[in-house]
Design goal:
Distance between the termini: 45 Å
Strand order of the largest sheet: 7-8-9-6-10-19-11
Mean pLDDT: 87
Helix content: 25-40%
Largest sheet: 7 strands, mixed
Length: about 525
């Protein structure tokens, strides 16, 4: 039986006097009758009481106490209320679809009202007819969503980028916790930044350096890229758009976009404008391609990278753009927590896929489909990666399947996992706990870029693979690990995905893959 959150308060609570009853007065008694506390009820969220006492506000677990007095709420009549604010990329289609699917799975009916950028969903018990939850969505921008969280007009932020340092600082100083903490974010869906042109455009591949040159105006004529002698028209998103802010931070790295760029409100509008502009180029979402044509990214070694479901899941495509939900460190209501946990389930992931985004369901890639990568490894092999090392790689992984669950590290050579990979730790741990790999072997295979001596890179690859292996084991506390074999292997720079001589190529090549045998 659970009593109070803080056992140290018990002695003090015994001495509290019951004041004359007022409209919101309550008395909360421990179930054995040994302790009671009185005060004015501040709120009840269906799980916890918050009471204003002579010692200040206290939060008490509703399962450990009995409530008496005129202010006691009916538990069955409690309506959970929480508010989401932020990017329309999540709020316009995906979140409503997720809310309605979740309600249907719980046997609840849904009514939806909209007033401009504000939507309200009322979820009601179908049998009794009374409301169970009210969920408000405010469709603004990621920047305004973080501002609403700070102003306490939102409980959860819908974001298409990570918070900036100034946003993290303000929220931390206001007592909302550290939003840079991975525990404060949840990756809802995956998307990607892609360069696009009109169908039939003569330029059929671009290096990332060329993309940057086009976006900043340093490349102003298509002839510089093998196209016709014609001026380039650049299409970009509004400066307030979260994806555009991510582009400025991650891709342009502080460089200013060309002031001549045509700005668009939303990725779909940008894609449509580029599709109708034979001299145009733009940066948009792969989820909002429309009639525009995605341009593959390429490097000097001949590899071409295209954003698709598989390459986005594995982050083999370099410009993955996750979509997030951010919550403060303050405790969410039980209904909200259950809804957020449900987002990891297969039914929720199918909704995400149908909405046009990349889901996070685990897929497998047979070893036989690694031909391009193996060919590239052979072509790039030098004295430091001898044939014997490639033979060891083939001998270890032949007949196995690569999971799309891949672990990558933040840009700049950091040993810290990026946002998508941090979420993969928990997902792989839950799969182990569910016994999905029983009787099989999981191989954590570490790879690096080619910067530095091959022997040192082999050691770095092993350290990172061991770190991921240990993190998964630590989280999978309910797994019977005697039923599955976990191995760590390291191959260093032996199997590049991208060209090492570029910064982005190095980022893609530093990874830990997971293979299933």
């Amino acid at each position: 039986m659970r009593l109070f959150r803080c056992a140290a308060l018990a002695a003090a609570l015994l001495s509290l006097l019951v004041a004359p009853a007022r409209a919101q007065d309550v008395t909360l008694s421990s179930r054995d009758g040994s302790v009671e506390i009185s005060g004015a009820l501040i709120g009840f969220d269906g799980e916890f009481y918050r009471v204003d006492t002579i010692y200040g506000p206290l939060t008490l677990d509703g399962q450990g106490v009995i409530c008496t007095g005129p202010g006691c709420p009916g538990i069955e009549a409690h309506v959970a209320r929480f508010r989401l604010s932020g990017t329309p990329v999540l709020g316009e289609v995906l979140m409503p679809a997720l809310i309605e699917t979740y309600a249907d799975q719980r046997g609840l009916s849904v009514t939806r009202d909209r007033d401009g950028p504000h939507m309200r969903f009322v979820l009601s018990d179908r049998a009794a007819g009374h409301p169970v939850a009210e969920i408000d969505l405010t469709l603004v921008s990621t920047e305004e969503g973080f501002a609403d969280l700070l102003a306490e007009t939102a409980d959860i932020v819908m974001a298409d980028r990570e918070p900036r340092p100034d946003e993290i600082r303000r929220l931390r100083e206001a007592g909302f916790g550290d939003l840079s903490d991975p525990a404060r974010r949840r990756v809802v869906a995956l998307d990607a930044i892609v360069p696009v042109v009109a169908p039939g455009h003569p330029v059929q591949a671009l290096s990332i350096d060329a993309v940057i040159g086009l976006a900043t105006g340093q490349i102003a004529d298509w002839s510089a890229l093998g196209g016709p002698e014609a001026p380039v028209t650049v299409h970009l998103l509004d400066r307030q758009d979260g994806l555009q802010q991510a582009i400025a931070l991650r891709l342009l790295d502080g460089a200013s976009p060309t002031p001549a760029a045509r700005r668009h409100k939303g990725a779909a509008a940008l894609s449509a404008a580029v599709a109708a502009d034979p001299l145009g180029v733009g940066l948009t979402r792969v989820s909002a391609l429309g009639d525009a044509q995605q341009v593959p990214l390429t490097g000097g070694c001949g590899l071409r990278l295209v954003a698709n479901r598989q390459s986005v899941k594995t982050e083999d495509y370099p410009l993955v753009a996750p979509l997030f939900l951010y919550a403060s460190a303050r405790r969410q209501q039980l209904f909200a927590r259950e809804f957020l946990d449900w987002l990891d389930t297969a039914p929720a992931q199918l909704v995400i896929r149908r909405a046009g985004f990349v889901d996070q369901l685990r897929d497998t890639i047979p070893f036989g489909r690694q031909g391009d990568r193996l060919g590239q490894a052979i072509a790039q092999a030098g004295p430091e990666v001898p044939l014997s090392e490639l033979q060891r790689l083939v001998g270890t992984l032949a007949g196995a399947q690569r999971l799309t669950t891949t672990f990558r590290f933040r840009e700049g050579g950091s040993a810290e996992l990026d946002a998508q990979s941090f979420g993969n730790i928990g997902a792989l741990a839950r799969a182990l706990e569910a016994g999905l790999f029983d009787g099989r072997t999981l191989i954590f295979a570490g790879f690096t870029d080619g910067d530095g001596p091959a022997e040192a890179n082999l050691g770095i690859a092993r350290l990172r693979a061991e770190a991921v292996h240990d993190a998964v084991r630590a989280v999978a506390t309910a797994a019977d690990l005697s039923r599955v074999a976990l191995r760590v292997e390291a191959f260093g720079e032996a199997l590049p995905i991208a060209c090492d001589h570029s910064a982005w190529g190095g980022f893609i090549n530093r990874r830990v893959e997971v293979w299933l045998r």
